[in-house]
Amino acid sequence: MTTVTVSSETPLPSLTEERVAWLALALTPQLGPRRILRAVERCGSAAKILDRGLTDLEALQFPVESVRCIADGHARAAADQQLDTLAKTGGQFLTYTDRSYPESVREIFDPPAVLWLRGNPQLFASPSIAVVGTRHPTPYGTGMAEMLSRDLAHRGLMIVSGMARGVDTAAHKGALAAKKPTIAVWGTGIDVIYPKENKSLSEQIVGGGGAIISEFPLGVFPAPQNFPRR
Fold first, then answer.
1. Rounded to the nearest 5°, which phi and psi values hold at 186?
2. SS3 label, residue 158
3. 128 phi/psi in degrees, rounded to 5
4. 10 lies in a domain?
5. Do residue 89 and residue 131 come from a single domain?
6. Using CA atoms, how far apart are residues 201 and 89, in angstroms rounded to an integer?
7. Strands in the chain per DSSP E
8. CA 52, 53, 56, 62 torsion: positive or negative?
9. d(CA 152, CA 154)
10. CA 78, 109, 228, 205 torsion: positive or negative?
11. Phi and psi (nearest 5°) for 107?
12. 56 in a domain, yes or no?
C-alpha cells in the first residue's frame, strides 16, 4: 500500500515548490495517479522527482515520454501555464497531500494526484450523498430528484452530483432551492462548462457557496471516457 505523508496546511494552502511539483507530475503524459504516488513515496517529495536527471527518472520506471517531459522542463512549464490560467479564472488546485483534499477520494484505489476546483474546498469534509441518474428522466423523475435533494440538503447532507443533464441538474437545483451549497463533479476541466446550457447553474453553485471539482486539467473538453472515470 502506498503511503504518502499528508500536509497539515490550512484549507487554502500556499503555493510552494512542492505543490507546483505535484501539479507538474499530474500534467506529465502517461503518468497515472498510482505511479505518481509510488514515486513520491520512494523519493520523499514531488519536488525531488522534478530535480532528477534522465537516468534517475528512468530508475523510477517512468515511461519514456514521461521521462523526457520532466527532464526537458516541459512538465514544469505546463504547471506554470496552468497556474497562470487558474489565476485568471479564479480556480485553484489541491494535491494529494493537502489537508483539504477529500478524505473519501484519498481512500479509493487510484486517487488523483491533483484536483482542480472552483469554490469552497472546506465543503469536502461535510457529510454528503451522491444523487445521480438518467440524463432523460420523466417530468415526474425530474421533480422527485429535485424534491429529494432539497429535503436531504435541508437535513444537513451535502448534495454531490455531476451537473449532467437530467437527474444531476435537478439534484443541484434542489440543493440550491434549499439555499444550501452543493458540489458538482465534472468530467471536463473546471473552465469547460458541459452541458453548455448549465452555465448559469454552474455560477449559481459557486455563488451559493458550493464547489465545482474535477480530476481533469484546465482545457479538457468532454470525452466519453471521462464521465465514467469521474
1. -100, 155
2. strand
3. -140, 165
4. no
5. no
6. 17
7. 92-95, 114-119, 128-130, 158-161, 182-186, 211-214
8. positive
9. 5
10. negative
11. -90, -5
12. yes
The domain of 156 spans 126-229
DSSP symbols for 168-222: HHHHHHHHHHTT--EEEEESS-TTS-SSGGGHHHHHHHHHTT-EEEESSPTTPPP
Distance set, CA 31 to CA 38, 180, 182, 230 (Å): 11, 37, 31, 17
Q: Which of 95, 113, 143 is the last residue in one of the domains?
A: 95
Domain identity same for 170 and 215: yes
Same domain, 142 and 189: yes
CATH for 158:
3.40.50.450
| Domain assignment of residue 9, yes or no | no
Q: Is 19 helix (H, G, I), strand (E, B) or coil?
A: helix
Please check whether residue 58 lies inside any domain of the structure. Answer: yes
CA distances from 128 to 153, 161, 187, 188 (A): 9, 10, 19, 22
In terms of C-beta density within 10 A (0-12 exposed, 13-18 middle, 19 or more buried), how is residue 169 classed?
buried
Select from 230, 201, 192 the least CA-distant residue to 214: 230
pTM for this prediction: 0.90
The residue behind cell 498510482 is: 34
If one counts the domains in the chain, the total is 2
pLDDT averaged per 10 residues in sequence order, the chain, 230 residues: 49 80 98 95 96 94 96 97 93 95 92 97 95 97 98 98 97 98 97 96 97 96 76
Q: How far apart are the first and last CA of the chain?
A: 23
